[in-house]
Amino acid sequence: MSTLTEVAHTLVSNGRGILAADESIGTMSSRLESVGVEPTEENRRVYRELIVTTPKLSDSVSGIILADETLRQNLSNGQTFPEALADIGVLAGIKVDTGAKPLAGAPNEKVTEGLDGLRERVGEYRRLGATFAKWRAVFTIGAGLPTNRAVRANVHALARYAGLCQEGGLVPIVEPEVLMDGGHSLAQCQQVTRAVLRSLFDELALMRVDFDSMILKPNMVVAGKDSSEQPAVAEVAQATVDALRDTVPPTVPGVAFLSGGQSPEVATNHLGAMQNLDQLPWELTYSFGRALVGPALDTWRGNHGKWDAAQKALSERAVANAAARAESKG
Ligand code: 5MM
């Protein structure tokens, strides 16, 4: 059996990345509805089957993050999703948070919940075949935001989640997402991202989380999507790497970015531009959701005749991101 450190390294090495297919029932239902598919449990299952049976996915994907519902479903051939992934050499992960809820005393800010009963759920998820987990906290940039209250509440929950996962035998993916919503500048995003990461690693240390057995899943440092000044790819890459270098301990095996609403191509370009910008102690890879599966969902639209084309669309994004990781290596 692999140690947690080995699992963490497997997730981020050999040029591969992580696919986030852990949309909650509500989010997945809206995504299906947006392409004209009825949001039933069966349609969510079929869509996830399309993803995990994509040919050669394991060449570029090391792990797939699943939702609780998917972990309990079966493929058409009767296998569970973790069994099917194990057969192709991909690790199964599980989103264990129960969502971001309004934070008392902090209007317009959220705290991610899910700690109650988490020790028991971690045990159950391991028995169902998961080897790693994910918890996402969100931070909004705005006038006076994020507040210290929201930052401290969220990093505390992230650290307690990570500790419980390591205690129970799952590698925690720790996801602090500074949202792209708003008209803020690249510099503002960098300042908030730095502050959040600094606070996060202080709290992870306090909770005795082993940095060598976790993965960080941060946002890239970008300007707000409503900003009229959108930075060049090279600026995003440099600002992101600078923020990470100032805050992320060198023993963390890897940083796996979320895409956060960037287009698939832009997210891939940013990832490519970061490779070998500086000598960095951690692997830099992807843990995209929308930027990996968006084109496939848009192609499929619930039409069985488009199954192969949709898998091809996913495969193309996965291959492009693996290629971006390889940029300027060696
Ligand atoms: C795939 O979506 C994940 C779950 O979202 P909800 O709990 O809101 O349904 C989400 O955490 C995702 O893993 C990250 O946001 C990264 O996805 P993107 O699309 O930003 O790369």
From TrEMBL:
Record-linked Pfam families: Glycolytic (PF00274)
GO biological processes: glycolytic process
GO MF annotations in UniProt: fructose-bisphosphate aldolase activity
Alphabetic keyword roster: Glycolysis, Lyase
Recorded catalytic activity of this chain's protein: beta-D-fructose 1,6-bisphosphate = D-glyceraldehyde 3-phosphate + dihydroxyacetone phosphate
InterPro entries registered for this protein in UniProt: Aldolase_TIM, FBA_I
Pathway: Carbohydrate degradation; glycolysis; D-glyceraldehyde 3-phosphate and glycerone phosphate from D-glucose: step 4/4
EC number of the protein: 4.1.2.13
Top-level taxon in the UniProt lineage: Bacteria
Top-level class of the enzyme under EC nomenclature: lyase
Keyword Transmembrane helix recorded: no
Family, as annotated: Belongs to the class I fructose-bisphosphate aldolase family.
Name of the protein this chain belongs to: Probable fructose-bisphosphate aldolase class 1
Record organism: Saccharopolyspora elongata
Native organism taxonomy: Bacteria, Bacillati, Actinomycetota, Actinomycetes, Pseudonocardiales
